[in-house]
Amino acid sequence: MKTDGIAEFRDAGHRLVDWVAAYLEHAGEHPVQPDVAPGSVRARLPAHPPEHPEPWDAIVSDLDRIVVPAITHWQSPSFFGFFPANASGPSILGDLVSSGLGVQGMSWATSPACTEVETHVLDWLIELLGLPERFRSDGPGGGVIQDSASSANLCAILAARDRARARAGTGLGKLRAYTSTQAHSSIEKGIRVAGLTPAQLRTIDVDETFAMRPEALAAAIAEDLDAGLVPFLVVATIGTTSSLAIDPVDAIADVCAARGIWLHLDAAMAGAAGVVAELRPLVNRGLDRVDSWCFDPHKWLLTNFDCDVLYVADRAPLLESLSVLPEYLRNRATDSGAVIDYRDWHVPLGRRFRALKLWFVIRRYGAAGLRAHIERGVRLARWLADRIDDDDRFVRLAPCDLSLVCFAHRDGDAATEALLDAVNATGRAFLTHTRLGARYSIRAAIGGTRTEREHVEALWDLLDSLA
Question: Residue 224 maps to which CATH number?
């Protein structure tokens, strides 16, 4: 039985595009989080792989019967947990084309359009987000698409590590890195992957807004220098995971500049806000003084997972850290020095044509559509924050400058946790939690592709009825 013919692909593809469209259209009708027990999905799957090809009808039927009832519906307009994982029509279609082309874009020579579209789109993003010109590809810096901010953060750690070792002529053991107590867990993981120990990452205290305290950073660095250690990296955050706190980048940059320390900014969620000019003073301040910066279009810029963008002010340390050129990858274009080989800009050799979905999104929405999406998320979050502030049963625990509302029940942690569990048990919305200081906090993250005022109002009604 032939299973890879073009006619069959065309017929099944049309059907599955219709299936995805119908799913997205009705995603809000599912319980946002499934009520399933561990192992229940595998129990419904055959114990052994099929010996013969199965019909598409059976495969699609099992999507409806087994898969959809057992997923958390990240595309539901009532998904308010973690951060958004935007999937938009243009992005999905861009991914489809990427899969169809099957490009392995490890170097310019393996598919020139894969490299050059990416380079050009990332230069577009610099204009759209109001980023410093020093990140453009036609200077010493440039950008690259990674799978996630975790990988981008690792690359910054590796580049900073190797630059510091070359300058100081020291081993790994004396290196020290710094980030706030609110930084993403990928920083510690990246430190470990880079061959350092968790003890070589110092976490810096935060202020009442949960932003890093520059004076505490300066004191920690001075203490380590006095001990003969080598500070090599500071990771600041523009929009922490717990509360979207924004570190004071200018003051942190002063500390780094005085000691020649690499400054990396993780703006995974909040970086997208730069498409709105009025929000740039909040999220773009100090960017002209950093060595590297990353954000996730797959969180808040209508581009489905996975797609992170890392920019560096000087690409040389990154390439020196990650470039390996075996004979079987040599080619005339690479040897000429006239092209970018993105395999040298991250850990994996292989890479997909991720730029296509970003290209589709930017072209189909335009700057105006991207701005409207971000503005809607901010507006809806502030509406919810106002409801929280006006209700004496609740207390808001962090500023609401962008699209995240963090709050607690005034009766304490047990009441807050019970409220979160009650909301999620209804299946009508999904929230997650964190700890801010000593308080258990509910997080309401707004910004999904299809989240509108009615969905946030429904969330508030649910909180009101269950509190």
Answer: 3.40.640.10
d(CA 187, CA 177): 10
Cβ 284 vs Cβ 274: under 8 Å: yes
Residue 194 lies in a domain: yes
Nearest residue to 230 via CA among 180, 179, 168: 168
Cross-strand bridge partners of residue 440: 435
- Residue by residue, pLDDT tens for the chain (467 residues) are 455 689 989 999 999 999 999 999 999 999 999 999 999 999 999 999 999 999 999 999 999 999 999 999 999 999 999 999 989 999 999 999 999 999 999 998 999 999 999 999 999 999 999 999 999 999 999 999 999 999 999 999 999 999 999 998 888 999 999 999 999 999 999 999 999 999 999 999 999 999 999 999 999 999 999 999 999 999 999 999 999 999 999 999 999 999 999 999 999 999 999 999 999 999 999 999 999 999 999 999 999 999 999 999 999 999 999 999 888 999 999 999 899 999 999 999 999 999 999 999 999 999 999 999 999 999 999 999 999 999 999 999 999 999 999 999 999 999 999 999 999 999 999 999 999 999 999 999 999 999 999 999 999 999 999 99
Domain membership flag for residue 349? yes
Instruction: Please give the DSSP secondary-structure letter assigned to residue 65.
Output: I
CA distance 229 to 262: 15
Secondary element (H or E) of residue 438: none
Single out the residue of 431, 426, 381, 388 nearest to residue 410, CA to CA: 388
CA distance 292 to 287: 9
Of the candidates 72, 284, 133, 196, the residue with the CA atom closest to the CA atom of residue 143: 133
Within a domain: 50 = no
On the 0-12 / 13-18 / 19+ scale of CB atoms within 10 A, 178 is buried
d(C-alpha 170, C-alpha 259), whole Å: 16
Alpha carbons 232 and 261: distance in angstroms, whole number: 5
Structural domain harbouring 331 = 96-359
Instruction: Report the DSSP pairing between strands 292-295 and 262-266.
Output: parallel
* CA distances from residue 31 to 83, 86, 303, 460 in whole angstroms, order as listed: 18, 18, 24, 17
Closest C-alpha to 217, from 189, 184, 170, 250: 250
- Does a structural domain hold residue 400? no
pTM recorded for the entire structure: 0.94
Structural element, H or E, at residue 377: helix 355-389
Total number of domains in the chain: 1
